[in-house]
Amino acid sequence: ARRVIASKNRDNFIAVGELFPVDETGENVEQIDSKELKNKIELMRDRGFDGIKIRSMVTANNYEDVAKHQVSVFVAAVRAGITPIIEPIVSREGQHEIQYATGLLTETIKQIVEGIRGADLIERFTMLKTGFPTNGKDSPYPEIDSMDSAISLGRVLRVAGVPDSVITYVLSSGTSGNEWHQLVSAANKLRLGGQMKHRVGTAGGTVNLQGPLQAAYPKGATEMNIDLFNRQLFASALRIQIAAFGKWESEYETMNT
Question: 142-164 burial, b if ≥16 CB within 10 A, otherwise e?
Fold first, then answer.
């Protein structure tokens, strides 16, 4: 239930390792022995990693254990000299409403922040990766209200005590490209309007890369069309920039270069 992604560092790239502390159901958090954890993180550092991403699927049954694990890995990473990236997420699967996701994220992140403060390392807390609170896909109202979700994310960060200096990177998991760009745009519209203090960045690798890759390397192809990939990737980057300025419109989703 635990994986370490190993890679060699290359010039102009940042290598980030990842620890998965839960099993496939997302329920059972494995608290790694502190000595074993220290050894694993130091091994990652010695292999050239610059940071470690601590991803945990949060549920009502495991959020306290998730918070403890996130803090323990955070502290071990800082002491080893690499950058930790906190990443608690609530799945969109299920029948829950947005209030459930908001409350669960708030309490989990609050406990993480308190644990980091207790270790006197709050100044090393620079990056948070999570998702927007939404209704579950199987709820009576599965549609995403982007502004409601953006307001909820701002509430999570504020109530949980996340420092204003922390950059929050939002995942695209479980959303379409248009839905995700609407969410990012709504959050940045709030920030630019002074209604949200935290900076919201993008971590939508699936949304940003899937389209260009599928267009440039379709099923059955023997090689990639690099020129097409570059043009599609440029269009994808332009969509992100528009959303970052809070100016997203749905018709931009089909924009190409």
Answer: eebbbebbbbbbbbbbeebebbe
